Amino acid sequence: MLLEVRDLQVEFKTRDGVAKAVNGVNYSVEAGETLAVLGESGSGKSVTAQAVMGILDMPPGRIAGGEILFQGRDLLKLKEDERRKIRGSEMAMIFQDALSSLNPVLSVGEQLSEMFTVHRGMSRKDGKAKAVELMDRVRIPAAKERVGQYPHQFSGGMRQRIMIAMAMALEPSLIIADEPTTALDVTVQAQVMDLLAELQRELNMGLILITHDLGVVADVADKIAAMYAGRIVEQAPVHEIYKAPAHPYTKGLLESIPRLDQKGQELYAIKGLPPNLMHIPPGCAFNPRCPMAQDICRSEVPPLFDVAPDRQSACFFWKETLDG
Amino acid sequence: MAEAILEVRDLVKHYPLTQGILFKKQVGAVKAVDGVSFDLAAGETLGIVGESGCGKSTVAKMLVNLERPTAGQIKYKGEDITTMSGRALKAVRRNIQMVFQDPYTSLNPRMTVGDIIGEPYEIHPEVAPKGDRRRKVQDLLDVVGLNPEYINRYPHQFSGGQRQRIGIARGLALRPEVIVADEPVSALDVSVQAQVVNLLDRLQSEFSLSYVFIAHDLSIVRHISDRVGVMYLGRVVEIGRDEEIYDHPTHPYTQALLSAVPLPDPSAREHRERIILTGDVPSPANPPSGCTFRTRCWKAQERCAQEVPLLAVPAEFRLAEGPAHHPSACHFAEEKRVVPTETG
């Protein structure tokens, strides 16, 4: 197992109290595998990833419990300088907004070659040659001429490619991509996802794809972990979840996608709003919005039930959801 | 087709690029919108799709007269609104209202919800006499599914979806006939988008509204629209009824756009053909000659660089009845089905 997150809990101290952003998350990724972490804003999907990367702002954030096993080692027990060695060379992250993640006053060549001079101790000249090679690899036209240009001189799609190049630079075994294509146009999004998938295959990397887009998930993921209010509500291989979801939340999400044969009819909509993390409802956090909620859902937190050997659902009524 | 409530003809918006400080010299223009024509029938929803920079939001702004077009006409019930001013313009504006994309920045944080929704009445006092306004605002809150008692709250006390409802209520306040919605759901959470789409749908039949619905999410546009126009670099490249565009696209850009949309169905992964375009959208300050799409098009030939393709039913489909018979601005238009038929 490449990465295993066990019972991770993260909270944030705010002026109005403690916000429980992640409440016991378990997931795992193997080499060459793509895990999609699906969720809405505030579901804890990005916070979990930041904890794995070790880039959580602490304070106000605090890891309240759990383990993050990366190639068998618990990252939470490592010292900061040990983690820094892993970050970048063993695991890397791609962010949503490439323009604000790249340094505007350094040329892209300098930023790319920094990976090699800092982590690998290469000379500046060799680093620059490597930067050109990387830009070629992510198909930036005229890489040699453009290596000295600054981020604002590239289009959005190309900036995201540079981010990918930077993440890939040291051939890490795990990549975390946080909404990598959300800010891009559809046709450019397809190019970037294609590139990411190709490089992943080539390097046999594990990929954690954080997204809210059910279409992107269906296109690239091997398995899905759907999050709601800081918990995983359903975890399953991608084909199965789209065929028959076992949690009312994932079911609601899938049903609210406009479908051809329902044109002119009302869309299915999950009622209500995602909860405030300072006041997560007792019992199942989804119960106020759930069409199947019973008394037990309001008093007891549902554990993850095994639906199938590689499939779990955190719903007392997963059988009914699966059948209905 | 029912009577057209809006007729847009050859609409152009060029933003001048100048050089020099004292003696500004125009050195070029950003051709944000470069000859757009369409009709909007009463009670109809026209979807406009396209990527960022294609000019769809500029069209929206011109429709509600927030931007003056460089050339072209926008006729509301036969009268050109682009040349109007003063009282006549004010009267027309009442009937064409806008819902904005970002519910976080389009509501004044220092005004209560009641003041925000009631503000249109300050400009058009003839719609609601002063004593009647509070009740009217509460009615509107109720119509968009918010508690009428929230009238004295401030925007920050609401979630994104609720704020968008407030924006919609404000758009409805003057009982307009046309609503221009510019990406009304794209800033919302997935589970909330469907709620707002349903609300817009319901309001349309309740108040017999016509919508111009601008978005980049093709599946939502298809769900809500009767007709769809596809824009690329300031021009409409293809327009038609929703099944004509989605199931029988004839313009290569439409085909590429449709094929690039990720489908929420993992089993479609294997048997779908994807057209991956190379490169980026060219700059509207310096668009390619002829067909503006030719730099990314796999069919481009000599002719495309020289001749601007007109938006008309292509010659090969002109005689044929059927769904391919719709306007498409391509010299080499060809029907191609890119979205697999949905099963189940």
From TrEMBL, chain B:
<dbReference type="InterPro" id="IPR003593">
    <property type="entry name" value="AAA+_ATPase"/>
</dbReference>
<keyword id="KW-0067">ATP-binding</keyword>
<keyword id="KW-0813">Transport</keyword>
<dbReference type="InterPro" id="IPR013563">
    <property type="entry name" value="Oligopep_ABC_C"/>
</dbReference>
<dbReference type="InterPro" id="IPR017871">
    <property type="entry name" value="ABC_transporter-like_CS"/>
</dbReference>
<dbReference type="Pfam" id="PF08352">
    <property type="entry name" value="oligo_HPY"/>
</dbReference>
<dbReference type="InterPro" id="IPR027417">
    <property type="entry name" value="P-loop_NTPase"/>
</dbReference>
<keyword id="KW-0547">Nucleotide-binding</keyword>
<dbReference type="InterPro" id="IPR003439">
    <property type="entry name" value="ABC_transporter-like_ATP-bd"/>
</dbReference>
<protein>
    <submittedName>
        <fullName>ABC transporter ATP-binding protein</fullName>
    </submittedName>
</protein>
<dbReference type="InterPro" id="IPR050319">
    <property type="entry name" value="ABC_transp_ATP-bind"/>
</dbReference>
<comment type="similarity">
    <text>Belongs to the ABC transporter superfamily.</text>
</comment>
<feature type="domain" description="ABC transporter">
    <location>
        <begin position="6"/>
        <end position="258"/>
    </location>
</feature>
<dbReference type="Pfam" id="PF00005">
    <property type="entry name" value="ABC_tran"/>
</dbReference>
<dbReference type="GO" id="GO:0005524">
    <property type="term" value="F:ATP binding"/>
</dbReference>
